[in-house]
Amino acid sequence: MHAAQIEKGGSVYREFSLLEIIEMECIKGRAFFSFYHNRVVGQHHASFTRYLGILVHDRNMCPLRVHSWVDIEEYKLQHMWEAVTDKFDSDDINDQRDHVLKHMRKLWNNWRGSMHKNIKSKELKGGNSSKAALLEKLNATVKENESLKGRLEGLESKYDELQSKYVQLAKIVFDQPSSPSSSDQQIESFNRLVY
């Protein structure tokens, strides 16, 4: 996020991104703090915890497509740790590596959980149907499909029957008889076909 200028009254204020604030607060590029009972204390403690949150939310630093924190490879954890030690320094920072990564794990799990909750709670695109309503619609569609298949088979059999009657009728009509008695026979056969 880049810095933006905002006018308030007659003054112009500059908004800084969180990374810019952290960089400005750092002494010689690295902020110094100390640990007390596994907690960060000192002037830059808030910047430190904000920076951990930034790292955890950054997909380039901390992978998103893993099921749990233990599935993250060691080299990626080392990369995140190096990013932390590049910005911050402490007398016993290397001794606190496991504790800091444990805190990052908690932040990562909370963030992923909130993302999952927000995605799951949103309605499906195109409607606000529940699973039961969708299942009911599916069952109705299946029944309708079976009904239409039955009707189609009935129509196809009627079509075949009418086609055979048409062929017989065409034979009767287009074959001209020479005797009147054969004409009566043809009318009788026609009546049998039709009725």
UniProtKB/TrEMBL annotation:
Keywords: Coiled coil. Residues 131-172 form a coiled coil. This is Uncharacterized protein. It comes from Nicotiana attenuata (Coyote tobacco).
